[in-house]
Amino acid sequence: MHGAIRGLYEGILDPAAWQQSLRALTAIAGTTHASMMVWDTVRDQVTVNEVVNPVEELFLAYENDFQAMDPAKARHPFYGEFFHKFELGSYMACLVERQPHYEVYFSMQRSLAQGNFSGDDAQRLDWVVPHMRSAIAIRDRTLALSTMTTLATRLIERLAFAVAIYSPDRRLLLANTAGERWARRLDPLGKTTEWQLSRSFMEMLHGACDPAKPQAAMAARATGPNGSQAEVLVLPLPASHAFASTWQTPAALVVVHEAGAPSVLLDSVMRNLYGLTPAETRLVARLATGEGLPEASRQMRIRHETARTQLKAIFLKTGCTSQAQLTHLLTRLAATLDGG
Amino acid sequence: MVTEDMHETIRGLYQGVLEPQAWQRSLSALCDLSQSERASLLVFDPASGSVSVRQTAALAALASQATPHDSPQTLSFNERLNVGGWFIHRRDTGFAATLGAFPQEDIAGVAPASMMTCLIDRQPGHEIYLSLQRPAGADGFLEADARALDWIIPHLREAVAMRDRAQAASTHGRVSANLLNQLPFGVIVFTAAGEPLLANAAGEPWIGRLMPIRADGAADGTLAPAGQGWRLSKPFHEVMRGLTDAGAPLEAGAIHAVSTDGHEAQIVAMRLTPGTPLSSACLGQPLLVAIHESHGTPRAVPTVLRDLYGLTPAETRLAALLTTGIGLPEASIQLSIKRETGRSQLKSIFTKTNTSTQAQLAHLLTRLGSVLAEPVR
Questions:
Q1: Which single residue of A29, A106, A175, B116 could bond B88 by disulfide (Cβ 3.0 to 4.6 Å)?
Q2: Inter-chain residue contact A290 with B361, CB threshold 8 Å
Q3: A94 is in which domain, residue-wise?
Q4: At B164, is the secondary structure helix, strand, or coil?
Q5: What is the mean pLDDT of residues A24-40?
């Protein structure tokens, strides 16, 4: 019994555990088959999602042909006729949970040889139903939580810069892919790094996590092995007070900006937002990182005059009056367009 | 023992995976079951030899008297326990030796007569114990008392392990929520059906502006006034359709928004990581929407520019102003500095930041401003 209960709750994080649990229940109740059924009350559809010893033909037959005529999903002579074909003698079901849009049933079936269920059989299993109900509730909440986390993780991947979050004791709490790469460069854990910082990384982390007086923002220039440059920003990430006390500790947000080509998605955004032509879009992509018009036209092998005309059209369409303004707009828009 | 109580206690343990309160109830129930005055979950760190109390519950009558616990410093047994094994401490079996381990004295006038401890789980970095204490005057714990509680130990082990996993997941979620709030632009994630799944603080007000909702869920289908004061260059659902089109989906969509009082915002929408379906299939392909509104330069920028390039406050002010796209003459007027001063400051900014045009400077400053949202808006 305790094993069966544990399995139900283990199923919160590990879906396979329900199977074992239902198997244990079939042994306790002396039945052959057990299943969980979800009845979608809006679409009036039943799906069977956890099955022990499934009678495949039965479920197929049920889902294909008999569901439509299933009278109220309740006790009915219908079941007698229906199950006998599959050598099933008796059927017992319990409503585990009723929600606005669906109902969850636990059902067990005995084969003809095992005799019929009686009221006592049902009562003997009464204890399991509240456990099922709480396990389902916890599973739903956990699922919601993990969906949120998955979404946030993927959102952070889209940022055009490296992000890493450190706890005060230098543990890496969270990072996007670029952030993980930088975590190894900035805090190589004993190994030597080829990147030189204009200011101690540890010092900045401590400054951001100082509970008494966190530094608003700190920054350092990083110089790589082949002279490549990046800007490292360290900011305090305020503890969110709505949450449990264990997570009230401050954290440090580390952001690294590297110069790079703007995302290819910027093209489609500019076309959508301001109706730029393909030629104008190509020019915009070059100007996005602050490149000058002469350099851009040379790279694109167009005449300077042509580039000038295109730029004028771009200004007109975007409402910008200077290249600085245009670059500002483009850089802002590109902030979430990475990793597409 | 009453079976319902047992099931209720078990349920509480697992509910405690998400709600610490439920765990508290179950520990209290264990107190009742074993006639103890206090039940605690202890975490022992073999490396440092220190013990910390993870959760403790006392009988209702005692709870009011108990003062907050100091962390006990040591945990010692006459024998090494196996997982699931019990150790019963009594005055006559060396209990005095372990008494100092727990701050019993803080329970006014009630020194425990007996204590029993079970090793719930042993992990490489820590061991978890359940400890029950009976007050003086009560009977000491016997072997049978321990046996009578054996059924709870595997449940405790499972619940503690699950709670650790759940907690790791929720930390991750909370840290990312904090991070998203730090961004200087709004973000929202919608399901393909237009259900908002996630939004940061700056994105929140845009949910209603982009997806006009039915007035308080009324079935008559009346739509709230679209946009709430913002005029969109095209309806958001059109952009969504373009992105989720089964045939030839667009890579990204964008909308220009103008408010009644003349503010502007650019809205960029795209699919979130194409090709990898979420664990729950029903969500479909989620969409990421970013909303860029024009705000002034974030307040943290001056510090960053000073740290990175050693810009003076005057130079920082000029750089911030130039980023918005105005020319040097106008910037000089706005800052009430002489044109000549402005020019020499700009030259110095270029040298220090290793840029050569205002556009490059604007790119650099905007990039640096990407995570420097104002703390409160």
A1: B116
A2: yes
A3: 2-146
A4: helix
A5: 76
